[in-house]
Design goal:
The structure is a single chain. By secondary structure, the protein is of the alpha/beta class. It has two domains: 5-16 and 91-242, Rossmann fold (3-Layer(aba) Sandwich); 18-86, Orthogonal Bundle (DNA polymerase, domain 1). It has eleven helices and six strands. Helix 1 crosses helix 4, helix 2 (38-45) packs across helix 3 (50-60) and helix 3 (50-60) packs across helix 4. It is globular, with a radius of gyration of 18 Å. 38% of the residues are buried.
Length: 243
């Protein structure tokens, strides 16, 4: 079967901004009179939405936050994040992102983005990077309540693509996902999609245990090799080529 669509994660795949998020989360915890723990970021935040992250961080400290209060926390962090972006020129877009997107566009493959980040954050980054127009669909944290590792975001993005392409035959197994965290990989797999894990946020060996295929850097991805699997060449051969 041919590869018909590719979905990207955002934080940790397109933009190298995870250190910014960790700093801001810890800053907000201090402002809330809560003690930060650096281990928490990897445990409950990486790959998940801010809502899920803060809910778990508060819970670990014995505090229950209502959805309305979480809304205020999330907006406060978003404002701080956008202020940080304004100080960065150029933005820390990962090497290989633009080249791989170029390969996909040359092959006329639709490209989507699925993230727990807020839409306004994603669009600012993509606009400044001249990448916004390349994505046929964008599912952000504003669009769904369930955070990764739930598959909701990828399934919604697939439905959007089916509507846009007027292709009711498009199936999860026709799609490839680019992810950098265990939560994201699990979400894509639960949606029925194959996953390339990029070792941007976790070590290669951790990604390799969970993703279908793994690369150290996006610069190592070659579309024609990936398409071999979808055209029946075999998963083992591709694994040897991209890992």
């Amino acid at each position: 079967m041919p590869l018909k669509a590719v979905f990207f994660d955002f934080n940790g795949v397109i933009i190298n901004d995870e250190p910014i998020h960790q700093t801001l989360i810890e800053q907000i915890l201090v402002e809330e009179n809560l003690r930060p723990n650096p281990a928490d970021f990897r445990d409950v935040c990486l790959g998940r939405s801010d809502r899920a992250c803060f809910r778990d961080l508060f819970s670990r400290r014995g505090r229950v936050a209502t959805d309305a209060y979480l809304d205020t926390i999330i907006q406060r962090k978003s404002s701080l994040y956008q202020e940080q972006l304004e100080t960065l020129n150029p933005l820390p877009i990962y090497p290989g992102v633009e080249d791989f997107i170029y390969q996909l566009r040359t092959a006329h493959l639709p490209i989507g983005l699925v993230s727990g980040a807020l839409r306004q954050e994603i669009e600012i980054v993509l606009q400044r990077s001249n990448l916004l127009s390349v994505f046929s669909t964008l599912v952000a944290g504003d669009d769904i309540r369930a955070s990764k590792p739930e598959p909701d975001g990828y399934l919604l993005a697939l439905e959007h693509l089916k509507d846009q392409l007027q292709d009711t035959t498009l199936k999860p197994e026709d799609c490839l996902v680019i992810e950098d965290t265990p939560a994201g990989i699990e979400a894509a797999k639960r949606a029925g999609m194959a996953v390339v894990g990029v070792a941007n946020s976790y070590p290669f060996h951790m990604m390799q245990r969970q993703a279908n295929w793994t690369v150290d850097y996006l610069t190592e991805l070659e579309l024609e090799r990936i398409r071999c699997v979808f055209q029946g060449t075999g998963e083992r051969e591709l694994a040897a080529q991209v890992s």
